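Researcher: Batch entry, complex prediction.
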Amino acid sequence: MSERVVRGAGVTRALPFFFALIVLVLATLPKYLGVMYQVKFVQAFILILLATMWNLLAGFGGLVSIGQQAFIGIGAYALVYFADILNLNPFIATLFSGIFCGLCAIPLSFLVFRLAGGYFAIGTWVVAEIIKLFTVQISALGGGSGISLAAFSGMGRETRIAAVYWSAVVTIVVVLLSTILLMRSRLGLGLTAMRDDNVAAGVLGVKVMRYRRIVFVVVAMGFGFAGSLIAMSNLRVQPDDIFSVNYSAIMIFMVVIGGLGTIEGPILGAILYYFLQDRLRDYGAWYLIVLGIIAIVTVLTAPKGLWPLITRDRISLFPTKYRVISPTKDGAR
Amino acid sequence: MSILSVNHVEAHYGDLKALFGISLTIDAGQVHSVIGANGAGKSTLLKVIAGNLPASSGEVIYQNKNINNQSAHERVKSGISLVPEGRRIFSSLTVEENLKVGAFTKRSGHWNLKTVKELYPLLADRWNRIGYYCSGGELQMLAIGRALMANPDLLLIDEASLGLAPVVVGQVYASLSEITKQGTSVLLVEQDVHQALRASTSTSVLLEGKVVMEGSSSSLTISSIKDAYFGVGANNGLD
Amino acid sequence: MPILEWGRIMVWTNAIIQGLLTGGLYALLASGLSLIFGVMRIVNLAHGDFSILAAYAVISVAMHTNLIGGIVLVLPVMALLGYFLQRTLLNKSLAMGVLSPLLITFAFSIIIQNVLLQVYTANNKSILTGRFASESIKIAKNLQIGLLPLVTFLAGVIVTICLHFFLNHSQLGRALRATSDDPMAADLVGINNRHIYGIATAIGLFSAGIGGILFGMRTQFAPSFGPIALVFAFEAVIIGGLGSLWGTLLGGVVLGIAQGVGSQIQPAYGILAGHIVFIAVLVLRPQGLLPKQMGAQK
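Model: Structure tokens for the complex:
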């Protein structure tokens, strides 16, 4: 009797159950939680979304970018365009703005993939700056001072916030599920192989370039959704804010602290960052300095992040890792 | 007088044990060869002596001093130079620059650009050629020349003849006598058993990380070496 | 009519010459970035921030001594800082894969910007040079070159020449190139890699410091200017060609001229024009204008 390869075990077996439970709880929260908490949850969801996407790009795709704010900005502006100017339902508009970002990512990938490593990182940032400069030239989008989102103006405040809350829940659930499915697919296996050894993966038939492009485009869509959510929560899009490289700094921090290359890590990092910035926000520049120092210390002492450190690399909440089960002598498992 | 003494040295690559208590001694001014099948631990031994791999136990005694704690670049200053497997020439530097950088530790001695050129006239013709474009034989001579520029008292050569045409191998081996004449001892790792025996005064045979045979090169017979090489006759469970 | 034409030609010539001179500044910033990358494959994301740091440091020191004293004190300290950071933090991260050095230098960038913000506030500052900043040399009728831009350009050229001689004709420079080719083999000829990497970063930050100080003399700056300096340095490196010292000088000049011509068309278009040239090179000739031949100077 030969060995079997299974995905996940133990904890992950119960996962779909827990997942559905959590989603149920989150969905009904607005009934019991005040508006203020819904807003906080939305902020946290956005952070989780950003961290998960950056991790997908860097941890699994091997592409370290500090220019992903380009897609956050494009997503935000696209939302305003689709919702206000084309008068689409804001939630349909979110979907479309994500798709639009994905489409933009395709030609951009051909451009930035000509660079590698650290220069790729700066290159994506330069591209983000260029996109910002072009966007500011478009007067229909408000130019340098930005544009307001009018699509919600009919709704009452509580309804609007609840609506944004639910779209955030839906978005994060869809994105997380997609990420898990992606990592379980052939693409995911290929990505893990690429991450471990580029050349070997290529030799074994993994289409490195194509997979990288797919990840780049999918992640762009995710950032587009994030941009849309940000636009919907703030009701205003300003180029200097939405295209700010600070988003990259925050994403990197969350993923580095939480754990690069795992699905659980970024979520942990996002939650940690949420509480950190909540506490330290009042200290202005100091909190960024502290974050920077924490990041350096983490990179040098716990390079895999907190999640693998805490779980000693053994627990995986999401069923994406493989295990080999060898038959015991009497055939039992 | 022995210049190098390796005492019961063990070495690991991670969890994999590669050397199981190797001991050997080299006398000053001599050529000592180490032979054995692939994977026997020959390169590993040189790495430990040169300082690229730490000894997990045992000592490396060089010029009567225990150098276990000396890093690789410090050992070059002390007079040990390694010509590594694969030569590892600096590919963007010219032949001349490769030699010049070999003198980084500024040790004094017989070897300089002029004398290395005399030893390997072929290099003079390629003086300004970038390392990337050099042929196998040129690379080997350049690698040895570069190591000589540090004026070592102990020269370690890993796989001197690997991948080289017989004519070139002959030239390389012919230079060994000049090298020892100038006072440098040589520890030679070699796949080619005949070549190794001809060029050296003493030989050690390695098998699976242990010394299974040693003696003066002139007294060792090919057939006994063959047995030691492949572990025939020894208790290794091949029956 | 002819006078008008001549006037317009002069205006454009002036724009190009200004751009050329600015290019020297970009080349200065870029050479440090390029050296650090060439030797260690580290892209120093804080390179621009270090150059701005030097400018601020000169302002502070000059308050107690004078401008010359400031420069003389700050530049060696920048070199020492680079050596120190490389040997303590960056060397450690090198062993951990490609991602770690990138993350650490990015963290440096955030830290430096915010420390500067705390200490100096966000208000624009500049290094006061008295009359030096406004002096100019008359070359032809209607054509004047500012002394400061000229000095900046010459600094860029001189630093490039010095680096060329250092890398190709000195033992330490050869050691840097050797370590870049094969760190393990460099170990075998007695080169202490950790020390060499420190030297490379020291030189890198030294030249970044020169660039920052000259930049601070001609323009007002704020803590947030670091990233822009990095972008210009990076574009100069890519336009010129990775790994090529003279390419970096050329890249800086091309970028400067592109920006100069662009801002002549419309002041707001200056930086954008530079970006467009950068994108064009990336699309049409990704290896850069003077790509590194195997064995060419770094």
